[in-house]
Amino acid sequence: MSSKPIPTDFPVYAFPTTKELEEFFEREHKTAPAFYLKFAKKSSGIPSVTAAEAVETALCFGWIDGWVRGIDDTWWLVRYTPRRAKSIWSQKNVNTVAKLIETGRMRPAGLAAVEAAKADGRWDRAYAGPSTIAIPDDFAAALKEVPDASTFLETLNKSDRYAVLWRVQTATPTARPGKIETLVQMLAEKKKPTTFTKSTKKRKGEPKDGKIEEIEKRDVKKAATKPRRRGLRSDPDFNQ
Description:
Layout: E1 12-14, H1 18-28, E2 35-40, H2 51-60, E3 63-70, E4 75-82, H3 91-102, H4 108-120, H5 137-145, H6 147-155, H7 158-169, H8 176-188, H9 193-199, H10 212-225
Parallel strand pairs: 1-2
Antiparallel strand pairs: 2-4, 3-4
Helix pairs in contact: 1-2, 5-6, 6-8, 7-8
């Protein structure tokens, strides 16, 4: 792949081991606004912390991963930031935190982020991933009342269907009934999630097209047709 420019808004680092990344977080997690972490692709042979190791370490200190970008044939880049006060949790990260607590790796900042999420309900509203998300009972009941909406939902591709269910799953208990009503109405009008954003403000924390898990899944299919080409998105370590 052709080289892409490296962002200059935040520092860029690369760490060969989890220990070195952990030491960096120990020093910087309270004061740094953000940073980019460079990952070496396995085919490069360069020692590098993996994406999974980096996410675990970030969660320990109350940080999360976000923006993803390929740089060249050797490196790819992920931006890390402190978790925002109202940031929505994924079920995957909730499960990861449980393991980190069990092994004693969580730091005070990470535990504080967990307690804040439990206190305001975000912990219980953690969203499932595309492969495990299901239609909630209350949404299913609403769809049953409007067959056109139910039928149109079944025609959506996996990405669009997930975008709909994500909105239901992450809504607060107070907002959820209204959210379901709005979604059912839009589906009945044969509007896809990309249309939803034109009439409803995109919420903070909503999954982005560049998220690691989505990129990995999209390019597994691509890798199958080009088995000799190893790049950013087919890298086995490219996991959220």
